[in-house]
Amino acid sequence: MNFEEVYEEFKIYAMKRHKKQSFITLSVDFNNHILPYFKGKNLVEITKNDIIAWQNNILDLNFSNSYNSKLYSFFCTFMKYCILCGYITDNLVLMVGNFPHKIEQKEHCIYTLSQFLKFRKNIDNYIYKSYFTFMYFYGTRPGETMALRFSDYSKGIIFINHNLQRKGTRELDTPKNIYSLRHFKINLFMRIILYRLKLSYIKSYGKGNDYFIFGGNKPLSPTTIDRIKMEAIKKSKLPYITQHEFRHSYCSRNIRKKVPIAAVAKSLGHGRISTTLDIYTH
User: Fold this and answer.
1) Cα–Cα distance for residue pair 36/44, rounded to 1 Å
2) What is the CA radius of gyration of the chain?
């Protein structure tokens, strides 16, 4: 069987078994970094040397360890599908093994409270100002924050039930994993912010309870969020920060406040405390 033909079959199989956004990301990675190396080859003619040559090419691109592992894992899944269908008998990718790990020094930018307040002061639009405030003080993922509707808010409690796809059709999806389904209380300051936002949407669009908390009739655009963030960073003369690093800031701030790590992990939607320690407590 031809590699591309089997891959078209596999996409139908994988689409049913992955979250939509995850499948889109994996497909892009496969199309860019796996398919070009094996296009035109017959599956049964692929050798271990071919897999090693592919790995060498990927290593030359100097991707991160985590990205290399993601490519390896998805390629393994593809090969398992090929075995399941009887096209091949051995998973050569698994036999060759994962990419060698290189020493990485991961650096993340976080904002202290004073830095964040300086950043926030330089955002004029109240909706975007509120969006960043929510992420900084509650540690939600960008997709989770954009997906929030007023129907996810009741009596001072926020329920994280959805994640918004940040690419493609931007549909509402389930959260990242089962641990991401969570709820937490918000303080009086944030309740006032949400109250003011809802009043402004009702004034603009009419009565309703299912407006997006940050956006109204539709969620905020990730590109516009990034543009406003960049403008505020420049005005504030602060280090560059990604949207996800507001989550890092939340975690680091709570650790410094001596909040138990188990409580921080739960609030972030982590299934294991080790995830919080390994990724966020830099």
Assistant:
1) 17
2) 22
* pLDDT reading at 20 higher than 80: no
- CA geometry: angle at 269 spanning 264 and 275, to 5°? 70
Q: Which structural domains are found in the chain, ordered by start? A: 3-96 (1.10.150.130), 113-280 (1.10.443.10)
In terms of DSSP bridges, do strands 157-160 and 182-185 run parallel, antiparallel, or are they unpaired? antiparallel
Nearest Cα to Cα of residue 210 among 150, 137, 282: 150
How far apart are the C-alpha atoms of 188 and 203, rounded to whole Å?
23
Alpha-helical regions (H) of 19-125? 20-33, 35-38, 48-60, 65-84, 92-96, 113-121
Q: What is the DSSP letter of 149?
A: B
Instruction: Report the DSSP beta bridge partners of residue 42.
Output: 2
**Cβ 38 vs Cβ 55: under 8 Å:** no
282, 109 contact by CB (below 8 A): no
Task: State both tokens at 255.
Answer: 């650790």
Of the pLDDT bands very low, low, confident and very high (cuts 50, 70, 90), residue 26 is confident
Distance of CA 62 to the CA centre of its chain: 22
